[in-house]
Amino acid sequence: MTDLRDLYQEVILDHNKSPHNFREMADASRIALGHNPLCGDRLKLYVRLDGDRIADVAFQGQGCAISKASASLMTDAIKGKTLDEAETLYAKFHDLLTGPPDEKATGAGLGKLAVFSGVREFPVRVKCATLAWHTLESALKNDKEIAKTE
Amino acid sequence: MSVVPETALPGVSPAFDVAKIREQFPILRQTVHGKGLVYLDNANTTQKPRAVIDAERRYYEETNANIHRGTHFLSEKATAEYEGARAKVARFLGARSTREIVFTRGTTEAINLVAAGFASAVLKAGDEVLITGLEHHSNIVPWQLACGRTGARLVVVPITDSGEVPVEEFGKRLSDRTRIAAVSHVSNALGTVNPVEEFVRLAKARNVPVLVDGAQAAPHLPIDVAALGCDFYAVSAHKMYGPTGIGALYGTEAWLEKLPPYQGGGDMISSVTFEKTTYNELPWKFEAGTANIAGGIVFGVATDWLRAVGLPPVAAHEHALLVRATERLTAIEGLRIVGTAPRKAGVVSFLLGDVHPHDIGTVLDREGIAIRTGQHCAQPVMDRYGIGATARASFGVYNTGEEVDVLAAALKKVQEVFA
């Protein structure tokens, strides 16, 4: 089951069990809903902006271990970052997930988010890992639409 | 893991030899992630027996030609086989005549055909279309479209906690405005077998036609549309050990005569001028364009195969698997079965503690076990239970009691991973 442990790394299982920033936010400046119709995952993301800086970010909802841990680690990673920095991080994260499965991912510059390197070997789970980020994008654009990974 | 096929499931006739059946399915011999394939996603699509695979190849090697228009040998042969297949499907479903069997792309297209016809020829503003809370999206959305076009209203019979549609609740919602009732025979998400005989009896008393979505029933239960007395019955070949992209709509002659064509084109006409077109006779009036000829012919072969195995033994075998699975899975701490109706086909939808169904599916896949996870194209059913998704194991003719045990053991591994 080594390959399963590549996907479900301890950090992911921990964040699934006890997600960080898993709460409502009363003074959010942006709120977006994310939905993955394939598996029924739903995510509500709250962002409080201070100029172009993400002062606070939190989420609620239901999802699989990958989507929940991804949302949790994302909130840790982007809190205090500028919008540009968050965008750069997402681009790197996306490359990590969608790179060729036979190529070992380095996860350089991703910090804890590098624990998702195993996801590229499970293509159907990429959407689980990106749901929170799609939702963030939609929150920052202030889209009224629900972000979908389909 | 090597699956040792068994014949000793309680309640199953010893004449039903699952080992002999498994031998006919080449795909079941393979390993997945180094484990023997345990295919428990039969409500999604079934695997194909050698007879079906061979028939598909034989058609293209020996018969291929367009139908209903040739004067040459192959065209006549293809036409005879295609129309012969229609007769086989008619017999399988218990239809009185081949005029009542329209080949479609599947159940979804069959329901769309009827819903579109009702929108053009029957439904008016204020009318009602009655469905149940158990329906697959394919028996909801076509009716929503029809209602949107006509101003008719969709009325939904609610389901109980066990996943049943109570007959009296169905009866209460039949009104003077009900123009059609569209109900599933077997729920794909929960496995509930609906009392369609009772639904038809109540609807007939009010002169309301009934469409039965039989996609999940036809591979598992003996079907007799004439005895049932429904007006429409829709099936998909690929859930009946046949090919994808082909299915059938049974419709009474009276209704098929009344409904307008679904699509225009070749084969569905008897004469065309720029002023006026006369439509072809039943059932070809509803079959525009070159048909899925190979699909139709092989669908016929699949019904032959299923009839030869015998639906009553299939139903008994799958029921025994259901009983065993219900017992084994219920014994797992924290596992909850969603859909506990007393009459169920071989479907077990379940939740395992806090583990998301998607994660269950991934871990089981690594054990060689194929199940479905998600909403099962039945979001209203999930909403009814306030859940986002379930994991679903569904049984077919080739599954064994050992495979049920392999599933139960693998679910304990899931719990270990997410402990």
Q: What is the structure about, briefly put?
A:
The complex is a heterodimer of chains A (150) and B (419). With 150 residues, chain A is α+β, with helices and mostly antiparallel strands.
Which fold name is given in CATH as the topology of chain A? Sufe protein. Chain: A
Low-confidence stretches of chain B: 1-5
Strand order of the largest sheet of chain B: 4-10-9-8-7-5-6
- End-to-end separation of chain A in angstroms reads 29 Å
In total, the number of strands of chain B is 17
Keywords:
heterodimer; A: 150 residues; alpha+beta; Sufe protein. Chain: A; 4-stranded mixed β-sheet; 5 helices; globular; B: 419 residues; alpha/beta; 7-stranded mixed β-sheet; 14 helices; 17 strands; 39% helix; 16% strand; disordered N terminus
Give an overview in words:
The complex is a heterodimer of chains A (150) and B (419). Chain A has one domain: Sufe protein. Chain: A (Alpha-Beta Complex). Chain A has helices spanning 2-7, 10-17, 65-78, 83-98, 126-141, and strands spanning 30-36, 41-50, 53-62, 147-148. Chain A starts with a helix and ends with a strand. Chain A contains five helices and four strands; from the N terminus they run ααβββαααβ. A four-stranded mixed sheet of chain A has the order 3-2-1-4, with helices on one face. Chain B contains 14 helices and 17 strands. In chain B, the strands form five sheets. A seven-stranded mixed sheet of chain B has the order 4-10-9-8-7-5-6, with helices on both faces. In chain B, strands 13-14-17-16 form a four-stranded antiparallel sheet, with helices on one face. A two-stranded antiparallel sheet of chain B has the order 1-2. In chain B, a hairpin with a 4-residue loop joins strand 11 (269-272) and strand 12 (277-279). In chain B, helix 4 packs parallel to helix 5 (141-150). Classes of the chains: A alpha+beta (150), B alpha/beta (419).
